[in-house]
Please model this.
Amino acid sequence: MAQEPENATDFESEFRRLGENLKQSFQSAWDSPTSQDLQDEIKSGFNQLGKSVDEIITGLAESPTGQRFQEGIDDFEDRLQSGEVEAKVREELLSVLDTVNAELEKISSKLGAKSQDDEGE
Model:
């Protein structure tokens, strides 16, 4: 029966002890007044960032450019609901499909003609 060397147990207990010490050190550092101050600064910074973004968005929404943008969105929404956009998309898609099919037919007929020429030789 093989016995584990006594050193293996020592390593295990030392690594366990190291893990506990690291855990305790990180927790102490996290709970320290310096860390708390840093956390408060970060939270305050994010709050200020949020306020700045809100001000920018509000300013843009109230600006002439922002209002034109909103009018464009409203106009698009009206055209979408009326079916105008759907009709235009259908029209464009059918045109693209027609063009692709016409080109494929040209290629197919050229290949067919070449194949007949090759057979006739």
In short: The mean pLDDT is 86. Helices lie at 6-31, 33-62, 64-82, 84-120.
